[in-house]
Each structure stands twice: as C-alpha cells, then as structure tokens.
Amino acid sequence: MNTISNDPIELLRTLVGRSGYGKDGKGEYRHALLKDMSNNWVKASIIFVKNQVVSADAQGIHIEDVLRTMPGIYERELLYRETMGIEIEDTEE
Fold this sequence. Notes:
The protein is α+β, with helices and mostly antiparallel strands. The protein is built from five helices and four strands, in the order ααββαββαα.
C-alpha cells in the first residue's frame, strides 16, 4: 500500500472512492470516486474511517481498513481542492 499512498493525489482521486446510503444511512445506494464526492462527504469520510473497527470477513479486509493504511488520503483531497479552488456541494438535502 505504500506505493499507492505515495502516488500523486491527482491519480488517487480517480481510483479511490466511497459508497453509502446517504447522510442518514437510509437513502439510495450510491458510489462516487474521490474526485466526485462532495466536500462534506469527504470530511465525513475522514471521521468515518478513523472510527472504524479493524475487521475482516470471508471477503477479506474491508476497504476502510485499506484506507486506514493510506493515512491522509481524504485530507490530501481537501488540500488539493483548496489549492485548486474546487468546491463540490452536496446533491442531497
């Protein structure tokens, strides 16, 4: 994972993504690449990943565990957006 975590954010934001059921967990299932996520979703992901318990099942290690091995990817995305003047608003209310 170190190779991935050292890759430029311009590349990582086109490869790494998140999925979920909205802010309240009851919305429509959606998936987005990091480059397409709203700023608030990126910020919420920072908190979510930090609070996850390391777990594995028959499918292997959960993606949150993988992201934990790439510390700062969401923070790097926010810094990149700030530097580039990118602001992505929420699409859900």
